[in-house]
TrEMBL record:
<feature type="binding site">
    <location>
        <begin position="112"/>
        <end position="116"/>
    </location>
    <ligand>
        <name>ATP</name>
    </ligand>
</feature>
<keyword id="KW-0378">Hydrolase</keyword>
<dbReference type="GO" id="GO:0005886">
    <property type="term" value="C:plasma membrane"/>
</dbReference>
<feature type="active site" description="Proton acceptor">
    <location>
        <position position="72"/>
    </location>
</feature>
<dbReference type="GO" id="GO:0017111">
    <property type="term" value="F:ribonucleoside triphosphate phosphatase activity"/>
</dbReference>
<keyword id="KW-0547">Nucleotide-binding</keyword>
<protein>
    <submittedName>
        <fullName>Ectonucleoside triphosphate diphosphohydrolase 3 isoform X2</fullName>
    </submittedName>
</protein>
<comment type="similarity">
    <text>Belongs to the GDA1/CD39 NTPase family.</text>
</comment>
<dbReference type="Pfam" id="PF01150">
    <property type="entry name" value="GDA1_CD39"/>
</dbReference>
<dbReference type="GO" id="GO:0004382">
    <property type="term" value="F:GDP phosphatase activity"/>
</dbReference>
<dbReference type="GO" id="GO:0045134">
    <property type="term" value="F:UDP phosphatase activity"/>
</dbReference>
<dbReference type="GO" id="GO:0005524">
    <property type="term" value="F:ATP binding"/>
</dbReference>
<dbReference type="InterPro" id="IPR000407">
    <property type="entry name" value="GDA1_CD39_NTPase"/>
</dbReference>
<keyword id="KW-0472">Membrane</keyword>
<keyword id="KW-1133">Transmembrane helix</keyword>
<feature type="transmembrane region" description="Helical">
    <location>
        <begin position="375"/>
        <end position="396"/>
    </location>
</feature>
<keyword id="KW-0067">ATP-binding</keyword>
Length: 417
């Protein structure tokens, strides 16, 4: 969506008299992180132009920055748990308190240039750089979070195409098992190798304007095999505390919410929410076996660039979650594939905003119940029982009094006779 269209929608949503007092922040993620690594001056120019644009808008512009991968992961985790109500809840006195016994959920985010996993492990491993201490409302959370640069959906697909071309004898025509049968397209060498993520595969005689014809073969078996080569699983062989590429990861724990690219991919497979790994594999196999001409009838919203890549995305998600993060048939149903909670989108941006505006302060006066909930429940039950006994006693006394009165009246009548 063009930035002007986006800002016009914002202006419509926010009342006019609040425009000047509404703070605006801009956070850039993996795409800009890659650009900064590739060309720092170009990244600075982009940020400067964005700042100039927002300053001209009727809002209170405060900052534009490129956030780190870890920050992106943690902000996604904050968003998911904030929307799920895992940080605060209202008690009987309508005061916000920290919910007792509520477990936080993990967050799985799949973007275009990076992917993030964030969760609280069974045991805190503070010696690793991937574990962050997050302070929210006076409570501390030890969150494992890792961001895999160049492992977003778009960049991963480019690497796959680049590697297929590298292994092909015909450098102007390749077959992609992850594209649907009978699908054809033409891509430029710049599209394949223009990113920092795939430039290491760049051929010696690289010509950015040269065209490559890509033909889809729609082969689920070869697609899965091809996608697996994007990961270095051997470096984590026989290690439970390792995902891929030799990266440390504690054993996954609890429920997870998978959003962004995860959600859109499973939604294309006609899946959503919770489902088994068997269902996912079955739907993926069926989708990947389809002819290109069938996809417009299978997808609720058909766009070529997305439709051609859903098979790749599904296989990529399988390799990432099952072989990488170590989800299996038993704990796969603990993943909730969701787009939003109560009409609020799950994304890192909400956590970013909450953090910058201090709507979730690190330190906060803890609001406690007047007494322990168990004790309160016990006392409530006790007083309820006492009240019932008193009521029963009053009713009994009243009935007995009436009966005695009636008895006296009868005796009086007999006495007169």
């Amino acid at each position: 969506m063009p930035i002007n269209d986006c800002m016009n929608k914002v202006k419509e949503k926010i009342p006019f008299h609040l425009h000047k007092s509404t703070p605006v922040y801009l956070g850039a993620t993996a795409g800009m992180r890659l650009l900064r690594l590739q060309n720092e001056s170009a990244a600075s120019e982009v940020l400067q132009s964005i700042q100039t644009y927002f300053i001209s808008q009727p809002f209170e512009f405060r900052d534009a920055q490129i956030i780190t991968g870890q920050e992106e992961g943690v902000y996604g985790w904050i968003t998911a748990n904030y929307l799920k109500g895992n940080f605060l809840e209202k008690n009987l006195w309508s005061a916000w308190v920290h919910p007792r016994g509520v477990e936080t959920i993990g967050a799985l985010d799949l973007g275009g240039a990076s992917t993030q996993i964030s969760f609280i492990p069974e045991e805190s491993m503070q010696t690793f750089n991937s574990t962050l201490q997050v302070q929210l409302f006076g409570y501390q959370y030890s969150v494992y979070t890792y961001s895999f640069q160049c492992y977003g959906r778009d960049e991963a697909e480019k690497k796959l195409l680049a590697s297929i071309l590298q292994d092909s004898d015909n450098k102007s025509r390749i077959k992609n098992p992850c594209y649907p049968q009978n699908y054809r397209t033409v891509l430029t060498m710049k599209y394949l190798y223009g990113s920092l993520c795939s430039e290491f595969l760049k051929p010696v005689n690289y010509n950015p304007s040269e065209s490559v014809h890509v033909i889809g073969t729609g082969d689920p078996v070869f697609c899965r095999e091809a996608v697996s080569t994007l990961f270095d699983f051997k470096s984590c062989k026989d290690r439970e505390d390792c995902s891929f590429n030799g990266i440390y990861q504690p054993k996954i724990k609890g429920n997870f919410v998978a959003f962004s690219g995860f959600y859109y991919t499973v939604n294309a497979l006609n899946l959503t929410g919770q489902f088994s790994l068997t269902e996912f594999n079955s739907s993926m196999w069926t989708f990947c076996s389809q002819d290109w001409n069938q996809l417009p009838f299978m997808l609720s919203k058909f766009e070529e660039t997305y439709a051609r890549s859903y098979c790749f995305s599904a296989n990529y998600i399988y390799q990432l979650l099952v072989r990488g993060y170590k989800f299996n048939a038993d704990n796969w149903p603990q993943i909730h594939f969701q787009k939003e909670v109560d009409n609020s989108s799950i994304a890192w941006s909400l956590g970013y905003m909450l953090s910058l505006t201090n709507m979730i302060p690190a330190e906060s006066n803890r609001i406690w119940l007047p007494m322990n909930p168990s004790l309160f429940a016990g006392l409530l039950l006790f007083f309820t029982a006492v009240a019932l006994l008193c009521l029963i006693f009053l009713v009994y006394s009243y009935v007995r009094s009436r009966m005695q009165k009636n008895t006296c009246q009868v005796e009086h009548v007999f006495a007169i006779e």
